[in-house]
Amino acid sequence: MQHADALYRFALSRVKDHHTAEDLVQDCLSAAWQRLESFDGRSSLSTWLIGIMKFKVIDHFRKSKRTPTDQAVHAADEDDAGQDPVDSLFTSKGAWKVDPSHGLEMLASTPDDSAHRNELMAWVRACMDKLPERLRTLFTLREVDGLDVPSAASAAGVTAGSAAVLLTRSRQRLRLCLQENGIQP
Length: 185
Known about the structure:
By secondary structure, the chain is an all-alpha fold. Helix content is 64%, strand content 0%. The protein folds into 2 domains: 4-64, no CATH class; 70-180, Winged helix-like DNA-binding domain superfamily/Winged helix DNA-binding domain (Arc Repressor Mutant, subunit A), CATH 1.10.10.
C-alpha cells in the first residue's frame, strides 16, 4: 500500500479520470498480490508495480476504445471550428510551409538548469492536456511509455496506418502550443 500514491499518480497522468485511476490502482495491487511469488527482486518493488500498472493502463485503453472508421478518426481530432490548425502548416500539395522540426530541438536537449527543465515539463504537460483524448492517449503511449506504433495504435483504438498521421498532428500541436506560450528554441 505504500506505493499506492505513486501508482495513482501514474494512472491519473495517463487516463485523466480520478475514478478510473483509482480502479486501475486497485486492479494493479490485486494483480500484484496474486503474482507476488513471481516477483524475483531483480528490480525494486515500485518498478515492478509500475510495470504492472503500465499494462493495466494499456488494457484499459484497449477495452474502452474500438477501432474507428476513417470518418470517426478525422472527426475525433478536428477542432470545434471544423478546421484543423495543423492544416495551415502545409501547402495545398502537402509540402511543409515551415520546418517540421522547428521548436522540437529543445525537447531533445538536456538543460543544465533543473528549474528551467521543470518549467518546460510543466508547459509540455499543460499542452498535452489540451490535446484531444485520442491524440493525447496515442502520444503518451508511444512517446512517454515507449510502445511501438502498432501496440500504441491498438491500445488507443486507431489503426496502425492512421497512427503515424495522428502522432505527427500531436507533435505539431504540442509545438504550436509551446510556441504560443512563449517557449521558443
